[in-house]
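Morning!

As promised:
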Amino acid sequence: MADIDFDGVTKVYGDAHPAVDHLSLHIDDGEFMVLVGPSGCGKTTALRMLAGLEEISSGTLRIGGTVVNNTLPKDRDVAMVFQNYALYPHMSVAQNMGFALKIRGESKREIARKVDDAARILRLTEYLDRRPKALSGGQRQRVAMGRAIVRSPQAFLMDEPLSNLDAKLRVEMRSEIARIQRLLSVATVYVTHDQVEAMTMGDRVAVLRDGQLQQVATPQDIYDRPANEFVAGFMGSPPMNLVPCRLRPGHSRVEVLVADQSFEIPLGYADSHALPEAGADVVLGVRPEDVLIADATGANVLKVRVERVEALGSEALVHLAWGEGGAPVARDARPGSFIAKVGPRVTFSPGDVVSVQVSPEHVHFFDAGSGVSLRAGGR
Amino acid sequence: MAGFLFALPAIALVVGFIGVPIGQAVYYSFTEWNGLTSTWIGASAWTQAFHNSNLWTALQNNALLLLAVPFALGLPLLIAMLLHQRVVGWKIFRSIYFLPTAISWVVLGLVAERFFAYHGTLNSLIHAVGLSHVSTNMLGYESTALTALGITFVFTMIGTNTMLFLTGLATLDPSLEEAARIDGAGRWRIFRSITLPHLSRFIQLAFVMTVIALFSALFSLIFVMTGGGPGYATTTMEFLIYQTGFDQGAFGTAALYGIILFVLTAIVGVVQLRLIGSEE
Amino acid sequence: MTTLATPPHGPEVTPPEAPAGETPASDARRRPARVGRWVLFLVMVLIAIVMLYPFWVMIVTSLKSEAQFLSGGGFSWLSWKNLTATIPVGQEVLSSTIVCTASILIILAVGLPAGFAFAKLRFRASTVVFLIIVSAMMVPLQAILMPEFVNVTRLGLTGGYLGAIVVYAALGTPFSVFLFATYFRGVPDELIEAGIVDGLGYFGALWRLVVPIAIPAIATVTVLQFIQIWDDLLVGLLFIQNTSERPITVGLAVLAAGRTTSIPELMAGSLVSALPAMVVYLVFQRYLVKGLTMGIDR
Ligand SMILES: Nc1ncnc2c1ncn2[C@@H]1O[C@H](COP(=O)(O)OP(=O)(O)OP(=O)(O)O)[C@@H](O)[C@H]1O
Ligand SMILES: [Mg+2]
């Protein structure tokens, strides 16, 4: 078992824009690292470089302290779980799982023992003699896992291993994979674009965009302290509300101007951010669950209009628009991009004018130009 | 790099035994050559060749045989449509129709010779319908031998082309036909507007394969049925090459004829490559 | 072939019997459909007779003696009894088998790695090289017959089987490369990558993953080439000079062209020669169809 170290690793296809751009990322031995990001951001490419299926254009890649830039895949001792499982169709489940061991020349007895062990962990024992064709999606997925774990490799690499499963199985396998990883305690790099997987499975999450690493942190940190607007907007469902506004510092509080309204934040909270001079433009970020809808007409509230209510059963999403004209002024002007998440039994209906408050301890400020978080101490 | 090594044996085999001989054939077409020694005679080899009436006869025979192509496509198309109706026992009929495909054209040529012979089946059939004073010997006369060869060719192509068209029909979505029927189309309309356009790729492929067979697969038939005769009545390009080279020992001229045949098939080949190209 | 079968549909479904007393109009509308099906069936029987004609000729003629054949009447086993004396069928069938087997083995051994390389590994200019090899499919042997014959003779291969084997292998390779490459493009890259991560080299991936998956494609190439080579005349005629190593098709053709051999015996020989290819064909029909329409039917 070993740790993994990306040190300025870059991948350029042809002479295009780099698919992975100076990626520096350390994965501890036994750690579960989730790589997330939108489609085409370079997750798969990073993983394939780690597996040795793709050449590294520049930078250094180490597994267990050894540079592996030019090591063949078979000598890296990593196991990979593919999105479509890539099970060998002409082999039984047992043969699929034992194949890598057979290639390495392990004895039949040894192979059988390891396959049996893995099958027990994965609850596949009764399917060992079947061909992959005769298995359900979830079972195939477990065989793919089994093929990885029988080898007791230095690292597990998984590329969206759950994306071909239906929603219910996905939830089941999510905790199954996390359980097995903890049991075996092998460094794991897990690629996904599903943020629930990212939030629930990883010890840490690395967010990529356009080949560049945006932030690496524990899932809660990523959620609570996003390093920039992109991470803030990417993680969380629905995503964080981002609203351009202007600051007007008062004596003991900061006044935030949103469109033609304003509200104040006690300085104590604003201290957590290194806010620029008065009059500067910033982007205010508020998670939907930190938007409180109140009937009160008191101070420090924003008057907004209810556009649409989506009841989700356990909660409801209220889409809001600012001001009298009702024109949403949220950053990218998407309709419904300012959302409050409230309890399920709401009594609002579209057209109602309501007052909202944002809980001041949960606001985020980002630089209006670069999108970088203004939180003191950075990431 | 590994990729190149894996492909190398195939490349070597194809280049060594197909590519290089093409170059050699071009070179030797300008020489007088008996297989051992060759003398360069330049362009006059070509002018001489084009003054040889045998070449023109062979080219004309090939051109006339092209008249068989519509039958070699039309009959299989008809048969495939019949099979596609799925009457009782159609699978058995299908196997029977395809069976001659497995037999060598040498054997089919032998049988065809029996069919057209003076005491053969054709005359028995003619007599059976009451024309007892008519007797044919198609392979024996210059005027009819090529027609007999063409008919045999059509018969030999039926299995393969029917197979192609039937595969094509099987890939036709039945709901298209049903939609057309609901729109009020009759059988002929459906065939014209739905079936035929759907089959066009298969018909193109069959056309190319049939023409190529016509240029380069008649050797067996000619060899056993007529030996190119009577006279030169059934000598096609490919048979002319064989005769010129191996009966007359004029290797250089035979190589030259080979180049002409190559160019003719290359024209068809370009059509075929376009076909493959448009698929990818 | 059975894979092509789709359930019957459309106008073929015979309408239920019309109850007695049905209006004449609708009766008249239905009768042609039923009559049509009978006509159709009869036409198909007729075509079947035409297509079976060669077999009928071979069987009936071979069951006559030379004298019976000329006079037209009677049957006897004489031609079959004399067959081996006139035509060394045993030796010739053996020769055909040897030439077919060896050529097909070379075609597979060369075509599988090349198809794999063109589909999955790629290398510089691989697309161009692939197109060149595929276009070699179009080159008829007759076009390059003279140089080919002289080259193979110079290599000293035209005595026995070797020359013919090499030429058949070269002629069959372009098609097999094309077919394998097309087939392998349908195999997901991940499968091979999984093998490589599991510790296989490219050769191991080819031999232990790709070849087992490619069994249907291998069957197609084998069947098509078997029929092609078994039935061929030109190569065997020119590139195998030893008469004792002649394949059966060549033996028959030479006797037939000589016009001195008894026709019933020739027909008996023809039947013997046709049998293996027919058996292969009937057993592996569906692979044949697949091969013919490869690259066009999807
Ligand atoms: N073989 C290749 N040749 C050229 N460009 C490639 C190749 N593979 C990937 N790319 C490019 O590199 C970038 C990153 O691709 P990658 O597959 O790593 O994305 P991803 O994050 O895995 O996306 P997804 O979530 O859709 O799987 C993309 O812009 C893609 O177009
Ligand atoms: Mg990906």
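The pocket of magnesium ion (ligand 2) is lined by residues A 43-44, 159 (CB under 6 Å).

Hope this helps with the figure draft.
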